[in-house]
Every structure is written in structure tokens, then in C-alpha cells.
Amino acid sequence: MTEWFIIKWLLAFSPIAVVLVLMIFFNWSGSRAGAAAWLTALIVGIAFFGAHPELLAYSQMKGVLLSLNVLYIIWAALLLYNVVNETGAISAIGTGIERFSGDKSIQLLIFGWIFSSFLQGVAGYGVPIAVVAPLLVGLGFSPVVAVAVPAIGHSWSVTFGSMGASFQAMMAVTGLSSQYLGAWSAILLGLAAYLCGICAVHVFGGWKMIKHSAIALLVIGTTMAGAQYLLVTADMWTLGGLGASLAGLVACLAVARLKIYNKTQPSDVKSDMGLGWALSAYLILIVIVFMGVMFDPLRNILGQVKLSLEFPQITSRTGWVVPAGSGKAINIFGHGGALLGYASFVSYLVYTAKGYYSRGALKRIIAKSIKSGVPTSLGIVSMVCFAMIMDHCGMIYLLAEGISRVFGSLYPFFSAWIGLLGAFMTGSNTNSNVVFGVLQQQTAELAGLSTAIILAAQTTGGALGSMIAPAKILVGCSTVGLSGKEGPVLQATIRYGLLITALIGLFTLLVAVVFG
Q1: Residue 18 counted as domain residue
Q2: What span, in angstroms and rounded, lies between the C-alpha atoms of 93 and 482?
Q3: Beta-sheet pairing, 321-322 with 314-315
Q4: pLDDT at residue 489 greater than cutoff 70
Q5: Ramachandran area for residue 319 (φ above 0: left; ψ -120 to 50: alpha; else beta)
Q6: Is residue 54 part of a domain?
Q7: Which domain holds residue 299?
Q8: H or E element at residue 330
Q9: Per-residue CA distances from 350 to 9, 40, 60, 281, 347 (Å)
Q10: Is pLDDT above 90 for 231?
Q11: Cystine design at 96: which of 77, 152, 275, 337 (Cβ 3.0–4.6 Å)?
Q12: pTM of the model
């Protein structure tokens, strides 16, 4: 590489470096660090990459449109979670599950692997760790184990959880379809499901507990990975995380009846809500999503109104050309966020009719949704908009070219690590896919590799990054009395996160060679 190329590469990397330094070493939030990175990208783009007002304006318009696609799902997912949680249904689900087995390994798998993945499927954004950690402490697990297990156990389901918000983000920034990206993403995440289950058990009981849990890990892992693959390849990826975890729950309840695990015991915890009613909102969601995706007449009706903008060809002052085209369209009434909204409304009516809400419930639901949604939204918008500046100035292409030159044929091994890094620094697989999705896409194209495989590794690494993201660890520790004592938890999750990512990297390298 020439000296000038290296200097320009470092300048192109500077917005990402700003995010890394501010979040890792100065503990800034994603929204603050994203804003600083946006300013850095703006300055570097204008000074060194030929950005001009028209280019910047169009890049930000595209960024806002991409952000709305993702935020539609995030806000609706938070709304549904709070509609359900306000009734006490989440606690009722935990109580109902606990009654099935007194075996510690089964309890650990039900709560730390399956139930946390289920919560990721319906809410995400730190909810799985925050909800499951106190439940595990109540079952007698140490606080460190109680936080580390769901942090590790749920991470495989992040990409297709929350109505597939992270997958939606990757499609949005790369312009590629779910049919093209889905299969390999489901395969790599299916492998991650096994590895997350194994590591979650190892945290508590080492290799002895893994041996004891081997049958359960095999049956449940195969069920969840298989269900996720079938849903994703059937173009029902919005239900990938939720459907897979529900299938895993059924498999686990069956496995719990095996003699080796059948240690049922009465529970002292009582609930005013039965398990069926507690799960009813998610059954309503499944029906609505299935009808909205698979029933053509309804899908056509819902898909009639779309928000989309046309953008002209833009050329930077240095000659980088952004082709003309339309921005990411938002299907107003058929979007995954809209389907979540319908489910929230119907579920609220059902729970109200059953008398599960106390006075002022609606006000609390809205307030909690806003409190959780605003910081997340600010972080996503800032991250998306600085990524779009980088893309429209040719900075991402330059980064891809440099990485391709350095790593060459070994690049597939590192693709998952890039996704992991993005999630670690932002606390979000969605943000990781936004920041690094186009970079990985262009690097794969330059290296002559399968874009589908490389982007699958990107989003798998980003999902695994959830287990080591400081923001999520802080949330979990705060619920079990470990505030200010997060170090041991982070040490445990980093060890397993790096191990699983390395194995995913090796698998990616192998399949890239075979299918590349």
C-alpha cells in the first residue's frame, strides 16, 4: 500500500474509531458516540472525500428513511412487551415454566437459553437479561451466573428476534433481499444456537454439566435451529427468533420428562395468571404475522401504501459516484412494525377484558415504551446517518479495499469478528449491521467471495456481540444487585463470546472456500 492510501484509509476509519474510543474507554452512550462519529464523518467527508451540501443532504435523507424502517419495529416491539409485562404475564410465564422440572440443568436451559431467546424474539434491547437474571437468582443460582447465562444464551436469537429488526437493518443498508441473505444467516445462527446453549451450561457446571445436559442440548438445539431455518427460508423471518424459541420450549418440556431430568417439584410461587393467558399475546402476534405475510389477499391490501423517495445520481468532488435510485420503501400498513402494533392493540383489548390491568396501565405502558425507545432511537439515527455519509463519500469502499488487500483469502474468518466489534461498541446488532453491513458487502465483492456468506457472518458476529456489550451487561447486573460489580460477569461473557466467534469464523472460512 502507498503512504497516501494508508493515510486516507485511516481518515476513512476515523468515524468508526471515534465510536470505539468513546464507548469503550470513555463509557459514552451509543447516541452520544454516534453524534460524535457523525460530526467526524461530516468533517472528514468535506475535507478529504469531496462531500458537498447536495451529497450530504441526500445521504441524510436516505439515513432517516433507513432509520424509520428499523425504528418502526423497535418502537412497536417495546410497546408489545410493555402491554404484556404490565399484566404480570412475563412473571407468570416464568412461574409456569419453573413447575416443569427441578433439574438445575433443565432450569438453566429453560430460562437462560430458551426463555431469554423468547424474550429477545418479542422485545430485545436488554430485556432478556433484565428479566431472566432475577428469575435465576430466585432459583438459587449465583448473581454472576444469573446474568452471564442469559447474556450468552439469548445472543444467537438477536438477528431474527424483535421481529427481525437487525436483519431488516442489514437488508436496508445493503439493498439485498431476505431470499438472498436468509438461508446462510439462518445456518450460521443455527450453529451459534448450539454453541450458546453449551456455553451457558458450562458457565454454571463446567464439562460435567455439559455431559449431563448433552441430550437436552442436542434435541433443543436442533429444534430451535431447524425451526429458525424453516421460518426464515419461508420468508417469515420476522418470526424467526420467536418461532424458534417457542419450538425450543416445546422440545424442552418434552425432554424434561426423560428419566434423567424428571425431577419435578412443587413451586411456592403463585401467579394470578395462567400460562395460556400469559402467552396469549404472543399467540395473537403469531396469527397476525402469519396472516399478514402468508395470506396473499390480506398482504396485498396491507401493502398498498408505501413511503418511498427517489434520489438522483450524486457525484462527490473527488469523483465518487452514487447511482440514482429509490430509498428503502416503508410498507406503512404491512411492515413488521405495523403487525406488531396490531398485535399490541388486540392484546391490550384481550387483557383489559380479562381484568388484568390496574388503573393507569395505559399511561404506564406508553411512558415505559417512550423511556426505553428514545435513547435507542437517537443512537440508531446517529449511527445510520454517519454510516450514510461514509457510504456516499466512498469511505466505506476505501475501507473495504484496504481490508481486502491485507487479509485476502483469510477475510471470511474475520468477518464475524467485525460484526462482534460493531455490537460491542454500540450494544446493538442492528447498529453493527448498519455501520459494517455495506463495508462487509463491498469487501466480499472485491475479494470475489459470496456476499450472502460474509453478511451472514457479519450479523452472526453482531448477534454474539450482545453477550459482551457493556450496555446490556449493565442492565442485567442492575437487576440482581451487581451494580458497580460488572467485571466478573463481563470477564465470563467475553471468554465465551470470543470462543464462539472464533468457531463461527472458522466455519465461515470453510464454507466460503467450498461455496465461495
Answers
A1: yes
A2: 25
A3: antiparallel
A4: yes
A5: left
A6: yes
A7: 3-317+328-515
A8: strand 330-331
A9: 56, 49, 41, 8, 5
A10: yes
A11: 275
A12: 0.74
